[in-house]
Structures are given as structure tokens and as C-alpha cells.
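Lecture notes, unit on protein representations.

Consider one protein chain, 317 amino acids long.
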Amino acid sequence: MQSKSRGMGFTLIELLVVVSIIGLLVAILIPTLSKARAAAKATTCTTRLRSIGQGMISYANEYEDVLPPGRMPKPWVVPVEGGMKYRPTFLMMMESQIGIPPFKKPLESKDLVDDDGQPGDRQNYANETYLCPEVPDWVDERNGCFGYNYQFLGNSRLRDPDVPTSYKNWAVFLSRIKSPASCVAVADCMGTAASFSRFQRKPYQDNDWGDSSTGRDRDAWGNEGFNLDPPAVDPANGEMAQMDSPQVRTAVHERHSGKGNVLWLDAHVSPETLQSLGYFVHEDGVVDFGVDADGSVTEANNRFFHVNAENLPWIQY
């Protein structure tokens, strides 16, 4: 009986072998599962960007070939589905074409707050279509996850604050784009953190306190994320997402396994690196302006952002 009992047990060596095999399998499976989750998020992001792209084309078809503006200037209030919206961004402008409302209730004034306590100029997106699953907490419409090629496709900032229609570069017509299939429309955007090294960047901020003055740190991920600056921006004769002196720029965010999802103007989506889009990035992660003091483009290349596929920065004429 004693001999039979010993034969049915496990030795210490056998147990250690089993534990080692389990540990090895876990070590093999965890990276595979992580890659699968990342791939699923990238695919979901691609699907959402395609919906936005189809909405953009529908918007142009409905509004006499005009592409949406980056964001309406102060103090514009625009009629939208469900009411009026104060200073809508390009995404809000396309809500009826996309078919999904971005907010539970659009607000007509920055002095009003919604049911979540957010002011009219900093509402949080309430629908996943307008969010990237890799950064699901980037919900603030100002500090959003998707940036628009506003400089070339719809810079609706005002040249003269006293003239409410003195837009800097809008309206822009879809039919006049030289090559829509190679012109960036919307992409994953890192915000003005692009101007800082990867070691200086702060975590994402939104307006948690319902105060429009919060969530504006220039070195934070996602700041001014709805504006996507092209590779070459002229700090003297042009402008960038955040124009406070000194200016800071935004850039595509390589958040999907080292690449960023890019929606092109013909509504197809592809994963791209900063370099493949023409950005010049320093070793510490800082995205360069790409323009010399004399206004000439140096290391960067704007051909995938420019409406005529030219390597020129947009400047304020």
C-alpha cells in the first residue's frame, strides 16, 4: 500500500517542470494576446475613420462641393441636429452626414453646461464613433483624438475679428484637390505634445471641472488634438494649432503599434508613420517645424497635406 501511494504522487522536480511549462506558455501567449487586442483596436479605429470619411464626402456633396471647416470661429453658433451648437468642430459639422450625434445635447453657448457638467465649447463626445479605442479617455471636443488637416482643407479662423466671415482659408472645394487619394483629411493626432520630447510630455487632460480654462497644458498629450498640423509649418508667416507665443505644433500620433491611422480625402484609411507622411522627428521625439527662418521647407515634406500635392507650407497671405 505504501509503494502504491508513492507511485500516485508527483515529485518536486515534476512539479517544477509543470510550473516552468505553464510559465513559458504564459510568456508566449501574453504578447500574442496583446498584439491581437492592439490589432482589434486599430481595426475599430479604421472603421470609425471610414465613417467620418464617408460623412465628409457626403457633406461636400450636400454643400456645393465645400469641405467642412476645422472649427467655426467665435462667436459663431450653428444649427445642428437637436438644437444649436457653439463653435462646432469639423466633426460636429458633419453629424447629419455621419448619421450619429456626437453629443447628448449640443449647447449654444460656452456659458452653458450640459448634463455632464461640460461647457458649450468643451463638451465631451458621447458616441464612440468619434473616439479612438486606443485612447478612449480622449473625449474632450477640443482635446480630441482625431485631428483635421485644417490649414489646407478648412482654416476658418478669422483674419479680422470684427468681420465674422473673414476666414483665413475657407471655403475649400473638394473638386479642386489635385489628388484626394493622397491628401490627408483626418488622422490620429497627438496634440501639441508633438513640440516636446517624449520625456517631457504630460498625461492627457480634459476639462474635468467643467471649466474651459482647464486642460490646456501645451506639453500634455491631446492638447488641441482636433487640429492636425502638416509636417512643415512656418512659425513666422504661418500658424499652428496653438498660436500662443511661442507657437507649438501638433502631429500624427503613432498610437497603433508604431503607426497612426490616416483618413485620406477619398475616404480610404491606411496606417502610416510620421516619416512616411513627411514629418521630421528628432531623436528625442520632438516633431520639427520643418521650415527655415527664410520660410523655405527643409527636412519636412507637405505633399500629402497640400491641396496641390506641393511641398509648401500654408501661410497667411
